[in-house]
Specification:
The complex is a heterodimer of chains A (about 210) and B (about 400). With about 210 residues, chain A is of the alpha/beta class. Chain A has helices at about 20-35, 55-60, 65-75, 95-105, 130-140, 155, 170-190, 205-210; strands spanning about 5-10, 40-50, 80-90, 90-95, 115-120, 145, 150. Chain B is about 45% helix and about 15% strand. In chain B, strand 6 (about 150) and strand 7 (about 160) form a beta hairpin. The two termini of chain B are about 40 Å apart. The chains are: A alpha/beta (about 210), B alpha/beta (about 400). Chain A: Keywords: Flavoprotein, FMN, Oxidoreductase.
Chain lengths: ~210, ~400
């Protein structure tokens, strides 16, 4: 019997085409192959944050999401695994990337398997994945796989980035390793359950008793 | 079905003139607005409670008593009373007193307040927000229903043999609504007590309102207060009207664009699409609000926010006039169409007294050293008289 898992991809690239989205797609493809090898069907949802940029600012100011942003948030919070990719701006993830995770409920990513990716102009910023992005998801009680994939401008032109002969090195190798760790983690865990507080409220007797 | 207005008492600069009213002007304007609401036939005037600038909404019972003295008919309510940071003993006393002074024209809407700093101003901690709402209301509920209360909780000093005075008018406590935007716990609380639930949806999409009201209705039935469709529901609303809808939009847009809460965010058009805000002709307002029951079922109270974002008093009064004379009479007829017989109206003092089997004086006479009478003597005498 095949099983299935819901995988969300969040890409915070700004330009079109965007190297951040390109990296997100390559990671998602690699993960897809890893899931296929484990006989797991993937329900893939891609959230391109650029499309929600205005709605994210509006959400910060008005306190509620537009219908399309709500759908995007739900696509992420109801997933079993998340591939999150941001450009590195000024030593950290972009403001747009952070804004999205700011408007997601703080406990909505609890137990979520996460694979991180980031892009930047030079490889000197690669540790931003470790000192900025990873702590963000640790705070959200997500489970982040050890490998995080960084792609600098130079990686895209490097000989080892493509489909060369033999075992891949460089960016491709990192993507494959991250995807493998991610697929292992997601497949090994039960599908996530998301509770609806409106369906099953805390009974009032319990609220009274807690006092 | 009751229609009315609610105010948060914000002191906001009029963006079209740059003029900011003084506190005094805004306080007096609130009274004028309430009197206008009665004059044009609205049923309810409710004021919020805030304890910080730019609001003039502190001391709500002072405001409501003053308005009560100058009106005859309109129900005076709150939107909301801070059940978290206000001592329930004071709420019990203040609103029972207001009930007596206004001959029962009082109900309350409980809220937690959404300003973090307000909690420490009153010696509380926002992290106890839900717990305070639960515990304080449980005490308030008893103070109005039991003459002598022994009580011990976690968040307030205990009470021993305490009698809150005056006792509720005619022995019937004011009706209570619980207002909440996001917390399922508060819908649950309203359902548990069989109280009303008010969803202040003015800044929220209808999908969310539907979810909260649906929860309250289900749980109201669960707790044995009657079928879900007989639960007591109120909604917020926000409108600006001109005979020609384009004029309404042109005139309201500068206020909308920089308004507190949503200004500088979504466009007026987006916000109208996503929330109950309706800027247009009276007919557009009628159409929009007559359809609210399609989302939440037949409901009991509709309040409109009319006086915020720096709108000057003369325009606010004009808007209330349009609301009361052109919109609400039509909405009353519309809302009555297809409304089943068994759907109750919002409880009023008169209906609560009737439900309690008639008015009774609830005075608790102290054991005083002049007459030597005690509450027990009085009750015994009354019982003896009743038996004859």
């Amino acid at each position: 019997m095949t099983t299935s898992r819901r995988i969300a991809v969040v890409s915070a690239g700004l330009r079109q085409p965007s190297s951040t989205r390109l990296l997100a797609d390559r990671i998602a493809d690699a993960a897809g192959r890893q899931f296929a090898a484990r006989d797991v069907d993937v329900d893939l949802r891609v959230v391109e944050l650029r499309e929600h940029a205005h709605d994210l600012t509006n959400h910060l100011l008005s306190g509620f999401p537009s219908a399309s942003l709500e759908q995007a948030i739900k696509a992420v919070t109801t997933a079993d695994g998340l591939i999150a990719v941001s450009p590195i701006f000024t030593a950290s993830y972009s403001g747009l990337f952070k804004t999205f995770f700011d408007v997601v409920d703080a406990d909505a990513l609890e137990g979520m398997s996460v694979l991180l990716g980031a892009t930047g102009g030079t490889e000197r910023h690669s540790l931003a994945l470790e000192h900025a992005m990873r702590p963000l998801f640790t705070y959200l009680h997500a489970i982040v796989v050890p490998t995080a994939v960084y792609a600098a401008t130079s990686d895209w032109g490097a000989e080892d980035a493509g489909d060369g002969d033999g075992a891949p090195t460089g960016l491709t190798r990192r993507i494959e390793r991250g995807a493998r760790e991610f697929a292992e983690l997601v497949t090994g865990r039960e599908p996530r359950q998301t509770a609806d507080p409106f369906a099953v409220p805390t009974p009032f007797e319990q609220l009274l008793a807690e006092n | 079905m009751q229609f009315g207005i609610f105010t948060v008492g914000d002191v906001t600069t009029d963006p079209t003139t740059g003029r900011t009213p003084t506190e005094h002007e805004r306080i007096k304007a609130t009274v004028a607005i309430a009197k206008k609401a009665e004059d044009v036939g609205l049923d309810v005037f409710a004021t919020g409670e805030h304890h910080n600038p730019p609001f003039i909404a502190s001391a709500p019972t002072t405001t409501l008593a003053y308005i009560g003295a100058q009106t005859e008919r309109i129900i005076l309510s709150t939107a909301t009373t801070l059940i978290t940071t206000t001592d329930p003993v004071l709420i019990a006393e203040n609103y029972a007193k207001l009930q007596h002074l206004t001959d029962g024209r009082v109900d309350l809407m409980m809220g937690r307040g959404n300003t973090g700093p307000v909690y420490p101003w009153f010696g509380k901690d926002i992290r106890d927000g839900i717990a305070l709402a639960v515990e304080n209301y449980a005490l308030l509920h008893r103070l109005w229903r039991e003459d002598v209360v022994d009580w011990q909780g976690r968040l307030r000093t205990p009470l021993q043999g305490f009698t809150s005075t005056p006792r509720p008018l005619d022995g019937v406590p004011p009706f209570v609504w619980h207002g909440s935007i996001r917390s399922p716990e508060i819908a649950e609380q309203a359902a548990y007590y069989g109280d009303g639930f008010f969803h202040n949806n003015i800044f929220w999409p209808m999908s969310h309102t539907k979810q909260m009201v649906g929860l309250y209705r289900r749980r109201f039935e669960h707790y044995g207060h009657g079928p879900a469709d007989t639960a007591i529901v109120g909604l917020g609303g926000q409108v600006f009207m001109r005979p020609n809808s384009q004029d309404a939009i042109r005139e309201f847009r500068p206020y909308f664009d920089v308004a507190p809460v949503y200004g500088h965010g979504p466009s007026l058009e987006e916000f109208m699409d996503q929330t109950p805000l309706t800027v247009g002709s009276p007919q557009q307002v009628i159409d929009r609000y007559a359809a609210m029951r399609d989302h939440v079922g037949h409901y009991q109270r509709q309040l409109f926010l009319m006086d915020h974002a720096g709108l000057p008093l003369d325009i606010v009064l004009e808007q209330i006039e349009i609301l009361g004379t052109e919109v609400v009479p039509v909405l009353r007829r519309e809302m009555a169409i297809g409304r089943p017989e068994h759907i109750p109206d919002a409880p009023t003092h008169a209906s609560l007294v009737a439900a309690a089997g008639g008015a009774r004086d609830a005075t608790v006479h102290a054991d005083d050293d002049v007459t030597g009478r005690t509450a027990e003597n009085v009750a015994a005498t009354e019982n003896a008289e009743a038996a004859r």
